[in-house]
Amino acid sequence: MIVDVFENWKHYYAGSAIWRQAFEYLSTLSADTPSGDMVPILGDKIKARVMYYQTLSPGEAVLEAHDRYVDIQMSLAGAECIDWFPRSLLTVKTPYDAVSDAAFFERPAFAPVRVTNRPGSFTVLFPQDAHAPQLTPGTEPAEVKKVVVKVLAAAL
Known about the structure:
Low-confidence stretches: none
Largest sheet: 6 strands, antiparallel
Shape: globular
Number of domains: 1
Order of helices and strands: EHEEEEEEEEEEE
Distance between the termini: 15 Å
Strand content: over 45%
Strand order of the largest sheet: 1-10-5-12-3-2
CATH architecture: Sandwich
Radius of gyration: 15 Å
CATH topology: Jelly Rolls
């Protein structure tokens, strides 16, 4: 997992054209970007979806991981928390499905790491990083608009 402020993205995979394209796409987005379906940015190597929703409690959020794609998650408006877990230590709830590129896990009582994504920061989640996004950063559900950029792990 990588968590950083947006202006530092070049410190990671500096020579990777795929990484550069993903972050150049992210730099074009704002709170006014409409939400919608998954859109291809570079064929199946980079795709993205902007979404808008209410945050959830930890008991409502889904704990997932992906095999083929790395997630870059960034809030465009509002904030959300993402709980991180080492995938290798979790109990599988729903086995990996290649079509959705997702496996789902039983949620332990406590997350070893909780990240708060706010506009101006990003979180990168690799296949070994199980994560539960969409979490309420405070005591009450809040609205958040975010983007998830999926980068084909084999392309990095």
